[in-house]
Amino acid sequence: MDPMGCQSRKLENSFRLTRVGITGVKKPVVVIRDGTENHLTAEIDVFVDLPSTQRGSHMSRNVEVVTEMIDESVRSKVGSLEQLSANICKELLGRHGYAGYAEVRMAADYFRERETEGGRKTLERFRLIARATATRGNSLMKLIGVEVEGMTACPCAQETVRQMLVEEVPELKDLSGRVPMISHNQRNRTTLMMEVPEDVQVEADDLIDIVEGSISSPTYGILKRDDEASVVLHAHRNPKFVEDVVRDILGKLLEKYADLPDTVHVTVRSESEESIHKHNAFAERITTLGELREK
Amino acid sequence: MDPMGCQSRKLENSFRLTRVGITGVKKPVVVIRDGTENHLTAEIDVFVDLPSTQRGSHMSRNVEVVTEMIDESVRSKVGSLEQLSANICKELLGRHGYAGYAEVRMAADYFRERETEGGRKTLERFRLIARATATRGNSLMKLIGVEVEGMTACPCAQETVRQMLVEEVPELKDLSGRVPMISHNQRNRTTLMMEVPEDVQVEADDLIDIVEGSISSPTYGILKRDDEASVVLHAHRNPKFVEDVVRDILGKLLEKYADLPDTVHVTVRSESEESIHKHNAFAERITTLGELREK
Amino acid sequence: MDPMGCQSRKLENSFRLTRVGITGVKKPVVVIRDGTENHLTAEIDVFVDLPSTQRGSHMSRNVEVVTEMIDESVRSKVGSLEQLSANICKELLGRHGYAGYAEVRMAADYFRERETEGGRKTLERFRLIARATATRGNSLMKLIGVEVEGMTACPCAQETVRQMLVEEVPELKDLSGRVPMISHNQRNRTTLMMEVPEDVQVEADDLIDIVEGSISSPTYGILKRDDEASVVLHAHRNPKFVEDVVRDILGKLLEKYADLPDTVHVTVRSESEESIHKHNAFAERITTLGELREK
Amino acid sequence: MDPMGCQSRKLENSFRLTRVGITGVKKPVVVIRDGTENHLTAEIDVFVDLPSTQRGSHMSRNVEVVTEMIDESVRSKVGSLEQLSANICKELLGRHGYAGYAEVRMAADYFRERETEGGRKTLERFRLIARATATRGNSLMKLIGVEVEGMTACPCAQETVRQMLVEEVPELKDLSGRVPMISHNQRNRTTLMMEVPEDVQVEADDLIDIVEGSISSPTYGILKRDDEASVVLHAHRNPKFVEDVVRDILGKLLEKYADLPDTVHVTVRSESEESIHKHNAFAERITTLGELREK
Q1: Residue C6 pLDDT > 90, yes or no?
Q2: Which of A79, A110, D80, D143 could be cross-linked to D131 through a Cys-Cys bond (beta carbons 3.0 to 4.6 Å apart)?
Q3: Do D152 and D133 lie in a common domain?
């Protein structure tokens, strides 16, 4: 057998590569939050860079690292997907001696119990997003993110409808402050991600709360008739453009994370599947806490 | 070279197969409707059955047939995806002498111009679905189908909201017939498919009209502020469960296709992406015109 | 409040509906197999039929049933997704007094440990498919299914290559029985589903074994260099059309399930993502054990 | 009616937004290349930035601009998706007076005729990717990209197999230079994108040629038996890691675009759907021509 392996052969086109690795790995992962075990099915991508002097990247090592670190996590109780990503990231740099950069991405469905206004418990589905990136010799950065499905009602259509209806039904004029007007409403999908140094803690559950507090209304698995009407009323008393959703989240982040450093990266992205169109409305801010604080 | 080909070799497990073929083919197709050329990017699946005495199915012949028939269609002006499917189906039986059954499926995005209430022209996107199936010696059946994205507003939440608001604002009681109440509304995706003998004509455009006339409101690419309010008002004066959508379509089919035979197969399926839930509401009827007429 | 609910209102178009329900529910489910807990993230669809006299289907009850039955399953240790589907199915008929039919569908990623030829342990990903259908007054049918990703190598290209190479390199002629020839190989996705009466047991793990024994080679998460070469050699000494895959599975089913009744439904479907084409090769048999035994 | 519109209202959280717009628009587009009309179904996203002083972004204007520019393009014969994107981008800045940045993204299936080695014509499917970005007062940048599906055969498994087989069949030793060894091969999906100033021309067809010349083999819609064997032989005489694919493309870009400025951005990404694994192999380089030239 060739002791060198094919990956070490000499190269014709000796360019370095930004990221080399494996994508589409799926593994069962157990994460402990507040003493509770969360059994997740994680989708995992793993990358290192490749110098111009190295032909291939020993891909099988990547899967070994992922597998061993996940096994290890079950024994040593990892607290989050981002911490597991960070652990794998460091191990990748350890095993790929040639690499100066490592990156791990994870995503998984995640469930949380919640009560409706009427006191009914429902189990709601969210999506966790995690990433760790490490440059050899520098500190590791980790990203904590969530994707939340909720509901937005449009403030603009609501206002135009009010004007139209008041013309048709003048008696409505005095009531319209107390009777919320119809509007189009729809599923909204909002992503909130924060990238912080390894030793900084950000809880995905807090990010979910921030998003759900910034859309017209959270959505629920089970709604009895009264609960349903309450959600609809709440959403229409709280209409939001996707632009409003992103900005309200930014405002809440400044309050909640007043102690975090200026260098923390923030991505907020909100997309509404407009019920009156076949296309979506989209708003996004990519920034740092520092930049937001300058405002 | 082996003149027989590998597909003719003797078999260990000589079971017949229901469908053998190729899936995921994409081809540009030109269809002429009312003198206008429609350039479609069609996704195509092609199948024949395979007797127990035949090892393989000469898959490459299937692509040849598809390619030649599409080329032929450009010269001889095919009128619809279902007619093109029918032509390919017959040719498959011609070239696969061993086959007793052939099936062709197609789907493509399709655009139609339309006016909003305010007189503005928009180009709306739909999905065409076509299928042809032939059993050797019997007549060919073809399926004409459409998938339409539109809007539904929920009648039940609307009624509960009305009751709640009238308790809060008694003056509303007398107005509530003239002022549409808020409800949740959302994107709805409805599929309508009819399967008829080859010589029967059903126009996909008519099916689109039937679906759009049975949901709370069609949706539009462009809506200026007044148009938008009109759509929202119209939808809330016309609230629909997915069950209502399917039944209204069934009623319209009986009227529109009074002359078609009892044997015509009908599939109606409606799915609303509920804005207050993360799951969808779904209703479906699979039937024949004959069964519907018995009612 | 209206004690009747909107779903009981009188109807204009009083057609019965084949299936009404909710789709796209996701829930965490715990299944016990051989004493081991499997934590699955299940995608769930739930349907009942709707008579012509009933306007709507009380959709929220469906989610309640799903939620309560899943909670119940955690306490009472359900053995499989199909058993959980069956339990939900019966409860649906119990709570929707108007319904004569109920149907539950589930699918989930599922992981199983396995050894490579070289003795290395890997955790492989599969997909479980479950369904239960019940008609009031009749016995319940349940479906147990798996989707397996593996590898196929093409026997036909391999044979043509052999003929070509022997012309170029005559010395190869005598070796060609011992040296497997190159061919195109690729990812294959095979689905095997059996539908049986409620009291009949079929193990999803057995179905996975049958599929993996019928393709050119299973695939593995981790393969060191020698393992990798062994897999490649094994696949090319075991080339398979999709037609062969389906037939070999049918043969194995007859042996394995010799004791099951003739009425058991069987669906086998195999699709290869051909590495030399942009389209897929597809083969399928939909049948019963009885029909297979006649042969 | 309120002459200001809801989008101009005062704001609570007055943060600026990076990108606001609409996503998921689909439109039929006609592009003229070398005198031939290409009818494409384009997926389109359109964004502008939003200053902190502006509440909403007049989303309906975005669709109007897209629609009018596409209508205009049919009359004035646009040469490419990227040119159409550029035109829309400029118009967006014209109509959204508050915006300092505009971005348009497009993607579409695209077909090109090609001959197999055996002289057979096939119509192959590719994916065009286009983007234009403009900052007010600065020159516009446009991106020309392609996604190509092809085939890779693994050089490493091939070498290990050779060593294994030579041990089993010593006579093979002298032949192994002339007889290509088996390996795993699979579908590969490679993306090549170049971002250039508006006045620089890059042809998508050239990018397709560069990618197809850098993988183990292009793939074909139709292959007769001899063509099929030739493709398999060619791929196995030309085995490639994803790393090799990316580097070979980088080498070819330096030759082909020797005259383009150093500032041109280049993204090359290659992903192989490994036939022996359930995960993919991935390699990427994000760089500029200048950086590549330094090497």
Answers
A1: no
A2: D143
A3: no
Task: Kindly write down the DSSP assignment for every residue of B172-241, as one continuous string.
Answer: HHHHTTTSPPP--EEEEEEEEEEEEETT----HHHHHHHHHTTSSEE--S---HHHHHHHHHHHHTS---
Q: Are residues C124 and C176 in the same domain?
A: no
Together in a domain, B168 and B221 = yes
Q: Are residues C171 and C294 in the same domain?
A: yes
Chains in contact with chain B (at least 3 beta-carbon pairs closer than 8 A): A, C, D
What's B6's DSSP letter? Answer: G
Q: How confident is the model at residue D9 (pLDDT cuts 50, 70, 90)?
A: low
Same domain, A167 and A266: yes
Does the pLDDT value for residue B1 go beyond 60?
A: no
Question: Is residue B242 assigned to a domain?
Answer: yes
More confident residue, A142 or C70: A142
Provide the CATH number for the domain around residue D119. Answer: 3.10.270.10
Residue of chain C nearest D226, judged by CA positions: C160
Query: Do A17 and A100 fall into the same domain?
Result: yes
Domain with D263 in it: 140-295
Query: Given this model, what pLDDT does residue B9 score?
Result: 60
CB contact under 8 A, A231 and B277: no
Q: Which of A165-174, C47-56, D11-20, D43-52 has the lowest mean pLDDT?
A: D11-20
Distance from CA of D22 to the nearest CA of A (A): 5
Answer whether D52 sits within 8 Å of A14, measured CB to CB: no
Looking at chain D from residue 63 to 102, which residues have their Cβ under 8 Å from any Cβ of chain A?
A: 63
B126 close contact with C: CB closer than 8 A = no
Say whether both A276 and A231 belong to one domain.
Answer: yes
B96-136 pLDDT per residue, tens:
999 999 999 999 999 998 887 777 788 899 999 999 999 99
pTM, to two decimals: 0.95
Whole-number pLDDT of residue D3 = 40
- The answer to the question of residue C193 being in a domain is yes
Q: Give me the interface pTM, i.e. the ipTM.
A: 0.93
Which of D122, D138, D154 terminates a domain? The answer is: D138
- The answer to whether the CB atoms of C25 and A221 lie below 8 A apart is yes
Q: Give residue-wise pLDDT tens across range B155-184.
A: 999 999 999 999 999 989 888 788 999 999
CB-based contact, A179 to chain B, within 8 Å: yes
- Residue range A133-148, pLDDT digits in tens: 999 998 899 999 999 9
Judgement on whether residues D238 and D129 belong to the same structural domain of the protein = no
Among the partner-chain residues B171, B231, B278, the one whose CB lies closest to the CB of A125 is B278
Tell me whether C250 touches chain B (CB under 8 Å).
yes
D115 at interface of B, judged by CB pairs closer than 8 A: no
Q: Which of D161, D221, D235 sits opposite C233 (nearest CB)?
A: D161
Residue C9 is predicted with a pLDDT of 60
Q: How many domains does chain B have?
A: 2
Chain C residues lying within 8 Å of B52, measured CB to CB:
295
**CB-based contact, B1 to chain C, within 8 Å:** yes
Long-range contacts of the stretch B118-123 (C-beta < 8 A, 24+)? B118/B224, B118/B226, B118/B227, B118/B230, B120/B222, B120/B223, B120/B224, B120/B227, B122/B220, B122/B221, B122/B222, B122/D67, B123/B221, B123/D27, B123/D28, B123/D67
- Residue predicted with more confidence, D117 or B165: B165
User: Does residue A29 carry a pLDDT above 50?
Assistant: yes
Say if residue A65's pLDDT is above 70.
Answer: yes
Inside any domain, residue A36: yes
Q: What is the pLDDT of residue D1?
A: 35
User: Are C63 and A39 an interchain contact pair (Cβ–Cβ within 8 Å)?
Assistant: no
Comparing A62 with B107, the larger pLDDT belongs to B107
B128 domain-assigned:
no
- CB contacts under 8 A, B 153-172 vs C, are 155-156, 159-160, 163
